[in-house]
Specification:
99 residues; four-stranded mixed β-sheet; globular
Length: 99
């Protein structure tokens, strides 16, 4: 059973959401960076990917206009958002502020 998006972002630990598309080259560059961030941060953060082509309503709800767009949620609130590829040091630093 798949959890639904709104229940995932209600978490009390930070949830980093990667809004991406299969056809997007920068998105492909972002994916391995997110794996490294997940490996470094472990259970302190949850990272999920949302394909904007398969989930157009979620993308529309959060006004995602370009991909990749990364957002950090906690308890249902958007704490941070940025479009474009983000580096591992940037993401680890930002996520550390929200642990």
């Amino acid at each position: 059973m798949k959890e639904n998006f709104s229940s995932i972002i209600q978490s009390d630990r930070p949830v980093l959401v990667d809004f991406f598309a299969e056809w997007c080259s920068p998105c492909k560059m972002q994916a391995p960076i997110l794996k490294e961030v997940a490996a470094e941060m472990g259970d302190a953060v949850r990272i999920i990917k949302i394909d904007v082509d398969k989930n157009p309503q979620v993308a529309a709800d959060y006004q995602v206009r370009g991909v990749p767009t990364l957002m950090i949620f906690r308890e249902g609130k958007v704490l941070w958002r940025q479009s474009g590829v983000q580096s591992k040091p940037q993401l680890v630093s930002i996520l550390s502020n929200y642990r």
